[in-house]
């Protein structure tokens, strides 16, 4: 079990986030009512889409679409890159947020411990995955159908039944050391702002280390990177950029957590004017809008970031 943690003395300076704000125009678009049900998260189908549509360079030099590569994890789970993107953090995590690690190597250790729950745990993971995939199938089908019909997936999302209770039930019998669906959502600041950047950097570094070892395994490196890419992708969701999720958290009084949810929903709907170090300036929307027409540039830049991340693993 990965619960025993040791501080490591190595300290690597953290980079600042690539995302900052500029005084560009802010266009106000549809403003749906707040949905108090379910935790704030970039949706399962959106994460999956990103991993499914990147190109993966394989050991034999061939290039394959992410959706065409089935990875075998250590516990014999069979998952695609996009499925690992989608399950990371939101469904598989620990009670120890990765970004709370006090130095870079400790954050890497915490990342490995969190990845363990998906990659190695045999008490829950392999058996649970078909159940979770089945529960998320309706969302994925609706999302893909909307794209095929050139409709905004956010409209399709409004027709979806809330799955929170079923997801809670599917993960409720986990050991006390492994948080279930709601337990993860309660402490999910790893998915927000600078925290997401820290988690991505730790996971991507571990993937690069695996890929560059003399006996490194490219497929293993891709699975680690796919888990890390979840947090990179979250950084392209407006509701995750500024919401001070860790500060808006209470152990018993949940009013601050509701404020985080409201801020997340508001900024996801209205969007943010953002820029990056390369000089791109665009309007970023949030969860459920990744493949809406209005968020097209954001989706392209996010996909480019994930593709670059995977290419770096191959190049290592
Ligand atoms: Zn997330």
UniProtKB/TrEMBL annotation:
InterPro entries: PlcA-like_dom. It comes from the Eukaryota. CDD domains: PlcA-like. This is Uncharacterized protein.
